[in-house]
Specification:
Structural class: alpha+beta
Distance between the termini: 40 Å
Shape: globular
Radius of gyration: 24 Å
Strand content: 15-25%
Largest sheet: 11 strands, antiparallel
Helix content: 25-40%
């Protein structure tokens, strides 16, 4: 990237609108300014970011002036096929937990989506907000839709629509607003500059730290254990050499993982098993050159986690964004825990939660859901490792949500080994469940005990999924799902602070897909709510047990 001009006077200032009194109409008579050049945009973004701390802090001050938050739940990830995920545009609904910001009586929220939210779903989430009248919260919420269901990043759709950007600006006071997003890319930086408001998220220039290659580099700097492997690979020859090096360092390896630098829920990963044909070229059976050739010949047969992925597209993406090769961590008792961190706009690092991820697919690479909290046998260890990673990212200037994923394996003596796998510099599938808990009861995560404690001082546990998917759920409307939950007494009950909260409701009718977070006062109660909710949906739509072979969180933990 070019360096910005040294003369500040030569740089156009970020677009801005005058402040207006609360409740006054805010209408701009012109469209947002045209896109600036890349170097001007980068400079303007840095100027806007300097205002973020004050705006973010004001959301916690009851006496402060109104503060506006623009929520853009875009999945902006290059090199990844969004169309491979059924109902992908409805994943934007996972950020409905941000409606909890309306608990602040002077906060105003603008929620942008690809397609309109179902009214029943909106009413459902507003009713979950405790401590504020629903009507009061609803009057401070503005919904804006692109009316575009194409499987592309939401931010890309917004940037294509100048008049829609004008409507966003008309709905906020840019002098008091900031933007929050699910993922950050150059698109989100562009949108922040076009709207003239700062972004609560990592600067795009630091995104390389959250790639698979960047993750391994950060793990090395933090001094924590990670999976054996090699990073910064750009073509099939480098992949073949890396696999050969791993194999020669440990001839007992049975599988290798090839990962694109960017992925989503395991999509972008592929596994190469040691087949009989490859075994003929194993260390001790053939020369190194023959081994490399055998691996090269086997690469088109990689087992891709994405159902529509092909070797041709995967190889092309590898050349564009790069990737890594790692040893597949084997184990009779193996888990995939994750730690969630936050680096707030003041630069303060905080542990937010730990989870055991529930994985599926033939090699346990696909994210299906999670349990909170992670197993106490290794929870403190992985949290400590993750905080070391967070300290490195904090030093580099990262801001926003961070997730660090691990693989843990139980040893014969009962202890657990651990290997860091990747960093996500964004929200993940484990973000919205813990934030939904925050929406429901405004409790806190206790990083000493590793438990979530409600305002009443009681611990809560949960089991969550984005992938409860059955063909016989198709045709259900969001209203139907909520009705079934109420009839079968599994819906969330505020007076008990237990029960099931649904999400992805917009995906159920077309795709037969729904998400849920089952909350209990014990791990057993949380799982019981999960199972009862699933059985209720099955009984209402099929009248019998689930379809044999259908995916369910926990079917495979890798």
């Amino acid at each position: 990237m070019k360096r910005p001009p040294t003369d500040p006077a030569a740089i156009p200032k970020p677009p801005s609108l005058p402040s207006v009194p609360p409740g006054a109409p805010r209408r701009s008579s012109i469209l947002p300014p045209p896109p600036p050049t890349e170097e001007v945009e980068a400079y303007q973004f840095q100027q806007l970011q300097q205002t973020l701390v004050g705006r973010w802090l004001a959301l916690n001050e009851i006496e402060s002036e109104p503060r506006d938050v623009v929520v853009v739940p875009s999945l902006s990830m290059d090199g990844f096929q969004l169309a491979a995920i059924p109902g992908i545009t409805h994943y934007e609904e996972r950020m409905l937990f941000t409606l909890g910001l309306l608990r602040h009586p002077r906060a105003r929220l603008v929620f942008v989506t690809s397609q309109p939210l179902h009214p029943a779903m909106l009413d459902y989430y507003l009713a979950l907000i405790g401590g504020i009248p629903t009507a009061h919260a609803r009057n401070r919420l503005t919904l804006i839709s692109c009316y575009d269901t194409s499987p592309r990043p939401l931010t890309e759709k917004v940037l294509e629509r100048p008049r829609l950007m004008r409507r966003i600006r008309d709905s906020i006071d840019p002098a008091r607003a900031h933007m929050t997003v699910f993922t950050v890319s150059e698109r989100e930086r562009s949108l922040a500059v076009r709207l003239g408001i700062p972004l609560y998220g990592v600067d795009p220039k630091l995104l390389h730290l959250g790639t698979k290659t960047g993750s391994r580099q950060v793990f090395r700097e933090a001094g924590i254990p990670m999976a054996p492997g090699f990073e910064d690979l750009r073509n099939e020859n480098q992949v073949a050499e890396a696999i050969t090096d791993l194999w020669e360092s440990d001839p007992t390896l049975q599988r290798f993982v090839v990962k694109l630098n960017q992925g989503f829920s395991g999509e972008g990963n592929a596994v190469l098993p040691v087949s009989p044909a490859l075994r003929a070229a194993a260390p001790g059976n053939a020369s190194r050159s023959a081994r490399v050739d055998a691996v090269l010949a086997a690469l088109p047969g990689l087992r891709f986690m994405g159902p529509t992925e092909t070797w041709e597209r995967f190889r092309s993406a590898l050349g564009e964004i790069g990737g890594v090769v790692e040893a597949f961590i084997e184990g009779d008792t193996k888990r995939s825990p994750s730690v969630q961190l936050r680096i707030n706009p003041r630069g303060q690092l905080q542990a937010m939660s730990t989870h055991d991820q529930l994985l599926g697919g033939p090699d346990g690479q696909l994210y299906l859901g999670c349990r909170f909290p992670a197993d106490g046998a290794y929870r403190r260890q992985i949290q400590a490792d993750a905080l070391k990673v967070g300290a490195v990212l904090q030093e580099r200037g990262c801001v926003g949500r961070v997730a660090v994923d691990f693989v843990t394996v139980q040893k014969p003596d009962g202890s657990w080994s651990r290997h860091a796998i990747e960093i996500n510099l964004r929200m993940t599938g484990t973000t919205h469940p813990i934030m939904t808990m925050k929406l429901l009861n405004d409790g806190e995560y206790d990083d000493e005990s590793g438990l979530y404690i409600t305002r009443r001082g009681e611990p809560r546990y949960y089991m969550s999924t984005d992938n409860l998917m059955q063909p016989h759920y198709r045709g259900l409307l969001p209203d139907d799902v909520l009705d079934i939950a109420a009839v079968h007494d599994v819906h969330y009950q505020p007076w008990k602070e237990t029960g099931v909260v649904f999400h992805l409701l917009g995906a159920v009718s077309q795709f037969g897909k729904v998400g849920l977070t089952a909350i209990g006062s014990s791990p057993e109660e949380a799982e019981d709510f999960f199972v009862r909710a699933e059985r209720a949906l099955d009984a209402a739509t099929l009248g019998s047990a689930r379809t044999p072979g259908a995916a369910r969180p926990g079917d495979s933990k890798g």
